[in-house]
Amino acid sequence: MTTPDEILKGLYDETLVGNAPKVLDLTHEALTMDMEPQSLLFDALIPSLEEVGARFERGDFFVPEMLIAGRAMAGAMEVLRPLLAETGVETIGKFLMGTVKGDVHDIGKNLVNIMLEGAGFEVIDLGVQVAPETFVAKIEEHQPDIVGFSAFLTTTMPMFKANINALQKAGMRDDVIVMVGGAPVTQEYADAVGADGYAADASGCVRKAKDLLQTKRAKVLA
Ligand code: B12
Asked: Cα separations (Å) of 144 from 18, 27, 138, 186?
């Protein structure tokens, strides 16, 4: 009999080495054991990717290792997605989300999307490498309450400012709440580029998004 701790350890270890089929098997096995999807995510999958990042920084891992670990986690996320997003709540707002131009990291963004959907947001995901003009066009098309920019590289974080400038130029900056996030992003950086909100993780993003929306709606009514 496998114990929950063995499953979590297995998920951590197999994600680390990018063994996608095994990660998928363990995910299914965990669910048949009634383990919480959140636990698989926060106690195994995310810590494992953090370790992947640490090894990459030390020069023990290279891009291919990061890639296969990322894929292994993404496979598990596909199984967990409907469970994490399970919700009976009606739509509370529209959230347009994308990873900025030059950046292909999407695991963190996808996780945020799942949690937002779970909290009742309608999420429109523009994918990765989204150019400022695409954000502008899609905001015009979908009229979201909030737009989220995700960036995982210090070299692509400046795209936040470029995106905000593009919104300003298009005359839509005041119509939409801007949130930013991603591994290297900080509250200070978010303030410096003129974003309305920042969060370090998916649940923080949900909380902040609800707060910002409530404040904006209260202002409109006042
Ligand atoms: C997997 C991975 C990859 C995969 C990406 C696969 C994919 N589909 O996403 C691949 C192999 C493609 C990759 C490539 C590269 N990567 Co990479 N990658 C990672 C790694 C290991 C994990 C990232 C991840 O998905 N984490 C899991 C999620 C869940 O992370 P998270 O931060 O907790 O996410 C939360 C928050 O960020 C927040 N959030 C995210 N988005 C948003 C948006 C909003 C609006 C809000 C509010 C919140 C929010 O909520 C999320 C959920 O809780 C990180 C290491 C790390 N520690 O981050 C490096 C890392 C990000 N990569 C790095 C580098 C250098 C690269 C490359 C440049 C390597 C190279 N030489 O080619 C390329 C760049 C490619 C490009 N142009 O984008 C560096 C970045 C360093 C820096 N500060 O700039 C890191 C930090 C590794 C390191 N320690 O050096 N990478």
From this structure: 36, 34, 9, 24
